[in-house]
């Protein structure tokens, strides 16, 4: 669940993205201050728009927001009051974390992509397809997991590159808009002492 708010550019609308709709045709069902955005083919909810959102709780900031359990509960009350049966589930897990490439093989249908198994927690490994020229087994870097919003506004969802599933993205300094980021390809290289699964902290993880 990716929550964004930008009153200046969009208005007093809380936008909640649940899934990547791809090229699917979308439709909208609105009741009161709540609009459900769904795929016409599967009738699957992909997003919610909550209008006059500041009437429910104080909102501050611009871009991605992280809601408290109490705020999510308040939104669920509104969904229920308007007759929607679905329930929002709060996700407070960090979306930018230290990861380590534990296995890497060449993509069978590309001359520059690699299929990497990346540890992102003590007991969690995800597959990420990457083309970074400095990717290698053992490297620790910063990983954007599904549910992350990049500084340029793009959203990270599970996907596939040339037929191989990918569940996140290993980030370059430039993609994270870090100061003095080199304008060349290549993911962040962290010290071996960094702990896998640690939330990304620019002050700690970047000395550009």
Automatic annotation (TrEMBL):
Residues 90-201 form the TRNA-binding domain. One of its GO terms (molecular function) is phenylalanine-tRNA ligase activity. InterPro entries: DUF4479 (IPR027855), NA-bd_OB-fold (IPR012340), tRNA-bd_dom (IPR002547), tRNA_bind_bactPheRS (IPR033714), YtpR-like_sf (IPR037154). It is an enzyme of class 6 (ligase). Its EC number is 6.1.1.20. Keywords: Ligase, RNA-binding, tRNA-binding. The keyword tRNA-binding applies. This is tRNA binding domain-containing protein.
